[in-house]
Amino acid sequence: MFFYHNAGDRLNAIAALISKAAQQNKAMLVYAPDPHVADAIDRQLWVQQPTGFVPHVRAQSPLASETLVVIADSLEHAPQSQRLFNLSREIPPGFSRFASLIEVVGQEDEDRQAGRERVKYYKDRGYAIKFIDLAEIQR
What is the distance between the alpha carbons of residues 56 and 69, in angstroms, rounded to a whole number? Predict the structure, then answer.
């Protein structure tokens, strides 16, 4: 479980991490139950630099099972179970069936508080969490 925190631009940080995973041929399910967030990350993945477009589809696409990055508003019929990237402020339902969970927390108070609550939830259930401070990486 990876918790990236202190993201100055959360959406850009998320897209950069997804892009990096895609470059390494790592399949990733991007959980975005809020349609505005799903649309925003979809747009950002089209223009992500420095590599440009990151191939991705929505979970409803017939190509979902063949595409490394899939954006889903539900985890009910997930096309893969390797990496889950949570874009929700809530605990993703059924997250434990994924081999890895990645979270990004921005600098806004509401985002930070929701992140703390998720960390507490995961820790209370015995999950090991690796924390990465994005502010230190981006220096």
Answer: 5
